[in-house]
Amino acid sequence: MLAATETIANNAGGPPKGVPAASLRNASVRFGTFTAIDRLELELEAGSFYTILGPSGCGKSTLLRLVSDLIPAATGEVSIFGKTTEEARLAREFAFVFQDATLLPWRSALKNVELPLEIGRNRGSDIPAGTRSPRELLELVGLKGREDALPHEMSGGMRQRVAIARALVCQPKLLLMDEPFGALDEMTRDRLNLQLLDIWRETGTTILFVTHSISEAVFLGQKVIMLEANPGRLREVVDIDLPDERKTKLRDTSQFTQYCGYLRDLLETC
Ligand SMILES: Nc1ncnc2c1ncn2[C@@H]1O[C@H](COP(=O)(O)OP(=O)(O)OP(=O)(O)O)[C@@H](O)[C@H]1O
């Protein structure tokens, strides 16, 4: 294993250091008598990029659902920036991006990105508009000039970029991503990986990203969270000590391949 050394420095301008983005203490999730997640201890540093790997059914999606207040903890505590998951949800501290972009088919790219703001206004909740407008967010994800395109006029990768822009519109401090590029071809996925890293650096948001791809986990993550199955438990958090500025060529380096090899071996024992 490569020396797991210091964590790569956090972004300047990101959320304040000190308060963890997410803290799970002895957190378990049960579905009836089945334990999906067992006594998880995890602390996510604000501003960092975490990827999650683990065998099918080990609880990766369940972990995101737990953090995002979609399911309750059976034991223990979960806090997001010092708040309960419910408080954090109401304060829009986090946003979710799924494998399927789930855009409204009759609304343009811009109108889809504007949707969370509209819903907030209709409910009378006081959502601070982000420092970036929906138009600027579409530019950030590389879709300037495609504001009026309808979902069926866009490629899968473009639709997923709209979904990311929509997730960023309320300025979440934590972005939860459940295999967002899993359905895309390899070249598109690699390109979106680079774009996502740019977005992460620019926004300073904390990212928790589920993937089945070892190389994607290494390319994106400052730390890889490895879960094991039956029951879902934390196996290891692996520091990825690679240059902060990640370029496509990084995938060809021996350091990158060694991390992939280490994680592949670890995964086989999970
Ligand atoms: N609503 C539910 N009711 C009962 N069991 C559930 C429910 N949701 C998830 N599970 C179970 O919890 C376990 C973890 O599921 P989860 O979807 O989190 O795994 P995962 O690691 O994301 O899987 P994959 O990699 O295949 O997407 C699985 O055994 C699954 O069958």
From TrEMBL:
InterPro entries with a match to the protein in the record: AAA+_ATPase, ABC_transporter-like_ATP-bd, ABC_transporter-like_CS, ABC_transporter_ATP-bind, P-loop_NTPase
Signal peptide: none
SUPFAM superfamilies in the record: P-loop containing nucleoside triphosphate hydrolases
Keywords of the record: ATP-binding, Nucleotide-binding, Transport
Highest taxon of source: Bacteria
PROSITE patterns: ABC_TRANSPORTER_1, ABC_TRANSPORTER_2
TM spans (from-to): none
A GO molecular function held by the record: ATP binding
Record-annotated ABC transporter domain positions: 22-254
Family to which the UniProt record says this protein belongs: Belongs to the ABC transporter superfamily.
Full protein name: NitT/TauT family transport system ATP-binding protein
Gene source species: Salinihabitans flavidus
